[in-house]
Amino acid sequence: MRLGTLSAFALFFAVSACSSDQNESNKSTKDTEKIATSDNNSSTGSNSNSANSQGSASAEIGDELFSFTLGLCTIDDSDVLIEGPGREAVSSNTAFLSIDMTREGAETQGDARIDLGTTQAMQSMDDHRQFTTWAATDYSITYDGAKITVDGMFLTPQATEGVHGTLHANCA
User: Fold this and answer.
1) Phi, then psi, of 45 in degrees rounded to 5
2) For residues 77 and 82, what is the distance between their CA atoms, to the nearest angstrom?
3) Which position among 10, 92, 147, 154 has the lowest Cβ density within 10 Å, counted as fewest Cβ atoms?
4) Phi, psi of 169, deg, nearest 5
5) Would strands 94-104 and 55-61 be described as parallel, antiparallel, or unpaired?
6) Which residues contact 121 (CB under 8 A, 6 or more apart)?
7) What is the DSSP letter of 155?
């Protein structure tokens, strides 16, 4: 009888966990849709493109040159959200660019990350280049309408020190 009770509890928890994961997935999708809808409906002079629009980005980090075609490119008064697949110019290896920054007045917080060997976000934990305002001390981030430039030290998992780099993204 105890084995049957334990099996029933195990089945209940397994079904509950699956249901919870599915609800979180649905919630995440709905939240993403809300963000995309509010970005596309914004009338505050934001420079945003829908997911089907294309922007472009390039990065020079140390001796590596990257180019990206952007599927998500939003720059407005308070947020920068940019994503898209690309390649490193010399090796032709795939890469994925993600930029997520928030502006408050003259201060900008966030990061720019290039995952290597993939065409999707956060798929390369071992090989990436990452700029983050939380770790950087000498950097500049400039905005010009639908464009952003990030200049500073990019961290790599293999290096103890950062590598200087400049990243340009254009949402137009």
Assistant:
1) 80, 20
2) 14
3) 92
4) -130, 140
5) unpaired
6) 83, 96, 98, 115
7) B
pTM confidence score = 0.68
Name 45's Cβ contacts closer than 8 Å, sequence gap at least 6.
Answer: 76, 77
Kindly state the tokens that stand for 16: 């509950």
Per-residue pLDDT of 133-159, as tens digits, reads: 988 788 999 988 899 999 999 988 877
Amino acid at the residue 134: W
> Which amino acid makes up residue 137?
T
Cα 65 to Cα 86, 93, 94, 154, distances in angstroms: 11, 11, 12, 13
- Count of CB atoms situated within 10 Å of the CB of 129: 25
Residue 146, both tokens: 């639908």
CA nearest to 36, candidates 50, 16, 22: 50
| Two structure tokens written together for 3 | 């084995």
Per-residue confidence (pLDDT) for residue 67, from 0 to 100: 97
Cβ atoms of residues 122 and 100 within 8 Å: no
Token pair, residue 40, equals 């596309």
Q: In 13-29, which positions are buried (b, 16+ CB within 10 angstroms) versus exposed (e)?
A: eeeeeeeeeeeeeeeee
DSSP 3-state helix, strand, coil percentages of the chain (rounded to 5)?
25, 45, 30
Burial of 103 by CB count in 10 Å (0-12 exposed, 13-18 middle, 19+ buried)? middle
